[in-house]
């Protein structure tokens, strides 16, 4: 439509309709339409657009969140839709995560169905599931129809079984078969990460023929940097880099150009191992094969990046007893219930420490200075132990800590804690003597700290190794157990030594 | 050389020379040579290879480390060289990081100079610098001659100025200019991450001409998925995907095929922001431009992955007061000195808490049960506070926590801690009443815990925001400050209330 006609139409509509139409107009046409409007309407609509584009531009994220929340608060849903429309789906996802649930749902309803599927893929599990359930089943099916299969698999896994099945059955038969086979692998394995879309070529054709074949395909799957070379029975033989195909002579055969050393990843390989392979070999994508070396699919680096970020994130959050996939704006009652468990577990630790102190009530009554100093013993042990604990947890994750060197690591850590123990126990003992004018208290305090540091180191080293072997995430349970050990041993050593030596 | 001739040669050499030669032989030739050897020698050499290939195969990393350390301990340097030769440089780097320094240096001397450069790029800073210094300057120059420029820049930045300069001046003039311009950007910015090797094309040429041009180049830089479209003055205009170039009709123009929405990243963009762009837009590589939109280089996803892993790693390690780039097998004295500082800082916290308790010695003398229960107050506060702290630190890093929603987050966290505070303070109070048969103690304990949880939440929310605004890493300083707050307030509230109400 000519900009003049649009302008005439805009003049005739009521405010609501006018804004709806205005929202549909692309930036270029917008510019030209503005010239045909009456000055008053021009100022009004130009103002609306300027605000929207200012907020949607890529400067400080703050203003975007504030602009969206403001639009929501003022009920300007049209402007909101426009704001969201101009953002990348990842940005929209980020904004949705940064909003409280009620506002989030209202903003979500303004995301176009075609883009909603893509937005879902960028969200953390809890929010993704909640927002997917907000959509009508038909809308959800429409929204996810354009997604890559691996993203659809993730979504199906996150949804309640019934809705997931609906989504599965809405796919074409060919896709459904692929989806079902992908769903049969654990989410966090090569099979769960792969997409079933590799381009396959034969080893005996020429580069020119491959290029002609690719032109026939018209479009390659996203993030295609490799073509997979397979034999007639579908066995994986090697990979051909796109960047080498385009520089090859047209009459060179694929067999001369392909890399045999790009090895197929077994479909059962753990996600952790896949991530390490991608990092070590600087891969952009990699073939996935079954136990007979038949090509099943490929993994792309974008999914591996998500995996790496989630893994590191998880360790940090688990150390504080938090769930990395949870909504940080979940209803207060829901979050409170989750955290109550963690506080309860830690309470057991605290009562354990209190019980130890309770054993020495008689001692404390006679020498109240002990009560003043005892937190120092527990605290120094806790700090030193958590350093060793963190080092081992991270070393296990990176593969720096292995069976072949755990003993060396223990010796080193013990050495460090003896040196630091001697240094700080003397310093602390002297400070205590100065404070309370009692050499005995100083001596007992120093000895208890030295002993607690050694035990803390031993615990910080042994606990994660033990948990790892038992299949428990050391980041989740490690720090609670460590604190229990350092508190109990610290108080016991300090008060016990005092009871024997000072009374 | 014919396998028979090699076999004859092997028979004539002494053991040392024989192993040196044997080590140079590739696996295929090895197999055929073995057939020509005398049975005794065959058994010996086949055994050597079998052990080596067993250890170098991709099964459990443990056996590799153990095999390498064993070879070192037995002085079998030849076998060691062979083991290392068969591993990917990333694996070699991993093994070196998992060894104590003395062994590591000996193993390092067995890595071929041509591969040493690549191995260096996979190491953490401290070990990388140490091993680079182990090489003769000429060897170091030879080892790094084949590296990509961004890897060489990283290395130069990590070396002492004099050696770094030598490395810089050993480069060709053209490379040196590029290196110098790359060195002028902060390591952790788009400029520091980029490589100066993008393939450039013009918008007005046809796809067929671009393909011919690529064939002339013979080889594209690693991880090339985009060709950059620039005008005659070098201004960046957009990017052409290799995967779309190969599917295009030969007479289509670049201007029709290129993407204008692949925007150039400003050279001053922070590494953090670059990582987010790559994640949000699923990029494999991206153009870097100066303030006039002139194309300077490109960033590839492999460097971004390293950045992401390092970033997440850093938060985890900093929370325990550790340096993520440090050698976990550094000499004990060096590590002890580093950690002593952290223990010293925490000691101030502990003495602060002790000082607060000291204020109430008279109260404690009268009611020793308070000494038994007081660690519970501090501990519950610490746990609750560190949950909020971790949530905010991670929310800041992911952009979930912004100016537009920090208040909402605070309200939520306070709500959670009021609910949990009421629940657990009642539980703990009742337990204390049961234990000591004193309703007053229970009431004071419950009130102190509720108060401390609220303060802990406030501190866990406010401290990282404050530190972030001051430009201090919240992960590094946050937990120490938080512990100080929860300990001091916890003891003060509990003992203070007891003094007022119970005596």
Automatic annotation (TrEMBL), chains A, B:
Which one Pfam family would you cite for this protein?
Answer: MgtE_N
Query: Cross-referenced Gene3D superfamilies, in alphabetical order?
Result: CBS-domain, MgtE N-terminal domain-like, SLC41 divalent cation transporters, integral membrane domain
Give the multimer and partner information.
Answer: Homodimer.
Major subcellular location class: membrane
Q: What is this protein called?
A: Magnesium transporter MgtE
| UniProt-listed InterPro entries | CBS_dom, CBS_dom_sf, Mg_transptr_MgtE_intracell_dom, MgtE_N_sf, MgtE_transporter, SLC41_membr_dom, SLC41_membr_dom_sf
| Residues annotated as domain CBS | 258-314
Domain of life, per the record? Bacteria
What are the subcellular locations of this protein? Cell membrane; Membrane
Question: Which residues span the membrane?
Answer: 340-361, 367-393, 414-437, 443-467, 479-502
Record-stated family: Belongs to the SLC41A transporter family.
| Gene Ontology terms: cellular component | plasma membrane
Topology in the lipid bilayer is annotated as: Multi-pass membrane protein
Q: What species is given as this protein's source?
A: Pseudomonas leptonychotis
């Amino acid at each position: 439509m000519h900009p003049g006609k649009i302008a005439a139409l805009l003049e005739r509509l009521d405010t609501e309709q006018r804004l709806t139409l205005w929202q549909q107009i692309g930036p270029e046409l917008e510019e030209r339409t503005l010239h045909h409007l009456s000055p008053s309407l021009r100022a009004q609509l130009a103002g609306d657009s300027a605000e929207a584009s200012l907020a949607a531009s890529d400067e400080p994220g703050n203003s975007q969140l504030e602009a969206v929340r403001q639009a929501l608060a003022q009920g300007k849903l049209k402007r909101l839709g426009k704001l969201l429309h101009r953002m990348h789906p990842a940005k929209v996802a980020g904004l949705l995560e940064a909003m409280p649930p009620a506002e989030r749902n209202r903003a979500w309803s303004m995301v176009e169905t075609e883009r909603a599927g893509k937005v879902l893929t960028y969200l953390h599990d809890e929010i993704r599931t909640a927002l997917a359930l907000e959509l009508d089943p038909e809308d959800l099916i429409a929204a996810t129809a354009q997604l890559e299969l691996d993203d659809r698999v993730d979504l199906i896994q996150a949804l309640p079984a019934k809705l997931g099945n609906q989504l599965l059955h809405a796919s074409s038969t060919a896709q459904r078969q692929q989806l079902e086979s992908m769903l049969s692998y654990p989410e966090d394995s090569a099979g769960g990460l792969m997409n079933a879309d590799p381009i396959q070529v034969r080893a005996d054709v020429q580069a020119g023929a491959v290029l002609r074949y690719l032109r026939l395909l018209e479009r390659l799957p996203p993030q295609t940097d490799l073509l997979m070379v397979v034999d007639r029975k579908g066995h994986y033989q090697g990979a051909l880099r796109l960047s080498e195909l385009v520089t090859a002579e047209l009459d060179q055969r694929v067999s001369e150009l392909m890399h045999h050393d790009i090895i197929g990843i077994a479909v059962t390989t753990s996600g952790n191992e896949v991530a390490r392979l991608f990092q070590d070999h600087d891969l952009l994508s990699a073939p996935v094969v079954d136990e007979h070396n038949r090509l099943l699919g490929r993994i792309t680096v974008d999914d591996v990046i998500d995996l790496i970020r989630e893994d590191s994130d998880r360790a940090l959050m688990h150390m504080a007893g938090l769930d990395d996939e949870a909504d940080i704006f979940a209803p207060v009652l829901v979050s409170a219930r989750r955290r109550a468990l963690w506080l309860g577990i830690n309470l057991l630790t605290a009562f354990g420490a209190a019980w130890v102190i309770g054993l020495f009530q008689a001692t404390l009554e006679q020498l109240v200075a002990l009560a003043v100093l005892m937190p120092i013993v527990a605290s120094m042990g806790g700090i030193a132990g958590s350093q060793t604990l963190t080092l081992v947890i991270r070393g296990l994750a990176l593969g720096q800590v292995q069976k072949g060197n755990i003993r060396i690591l223990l010796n080193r850590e013990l050495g460090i804690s003896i040196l630091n123990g001697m240094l700080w126990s003397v310093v602390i003992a002297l400070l205590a003597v100065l404070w309370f004018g009692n050499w005995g208290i100083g001596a007992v305090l120093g000895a208890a700290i030295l002993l607690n540091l050694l035990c803390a180191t031993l615990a910080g080293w042994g606990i994660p190794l033990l948990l790892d072997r038992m299949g428990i995430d050391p980041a989740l349970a490690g720090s609670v157990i460590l604190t229990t050990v350092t508190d109990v041993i610290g108080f016991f050593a300090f008060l016990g030594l005092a009871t024997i030596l000072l009374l």
